[in-house]
Amino acid sequence: MLNLYPEFKFSKALLDSAHDVYDIYRLLWANQTEAFINLNGRYKGHSTYSGPLTVNDNGVPICIVNLPMLNWGFNNNRCRIKWRCPHYKDKSQCPKQQVCSPRKYGRVIYTKPNWDLRLFTSTPRGSKPWKNIYARRTTVERTFKRILVDHKIENARCRSKKRWFWQATLAAVNQHLDAQVVILKPSILSDIGLLTISKAT
Questions:
Q1: CA torsion through residues 38, 41, 43, 49, sign
Q2: How many domains does the chain have?
Q3: Is the Cβ–Cβ distance between 102 and 34 less than 8 Å?
Q4: Cα 39 to chain center, whole Å?
Q5: Same-domain check for residues 29 and 82
Q6: Which residue, 94, 102, 35, 42, is CA-closest to 70?
Q7: Which structural domain, as residue segments, surrounds residue 174?
Q8: Domain endpoint, select from 88, 111, 131
Q9: Would the pTM count as exceeding 0.70?
Q10: Within this chain, do residues 125 and 139 fall inside the same structural domain, yes or no?
């Protein structure tokens, strides 16, 4: 993609779990593209991070009372993620307040993506912002399904690239027309006589 479209800047890459390998993360990191990749269950236990922090599968640090810490944003200047105590609003709720941190602000931990690009993502994996961004990927899957399955491109019997292109173009046009029909509502279709014709046929 980078070679095909050098004029475009890809800020995010939304990929499925088949791409959950360190080489993909390194490639995206080198091109300043944030990775949104679903974890592959078969790849558990292969993390390269072996630091002093205890983290869960989503790269969230676990405090000494075994609670996930709260994400406090990504610092672009220092390229690190800030995490705060889960009891920062009311430290009296923490049974190990004095042992952990007696400061009023509470315990703060920083993680850096380059420690483990798979674990410490800029947007924490599993968080609401991460899920909202990753949900956009389903629109691409639906588009492929609409073109390949619903419009029979997958079963098309043609050999030339021009015919493939023509059929894919027609499928894309029909897909946009379907969306317009939903927006226009049946009342508009009846005004121009299309709804009556479709019922008659």
A1: positive
A2: 2
A3: no
A4: 11
A5: yes
A6: 94
A7: 132-192
A8: 131
A9: no
A10: no
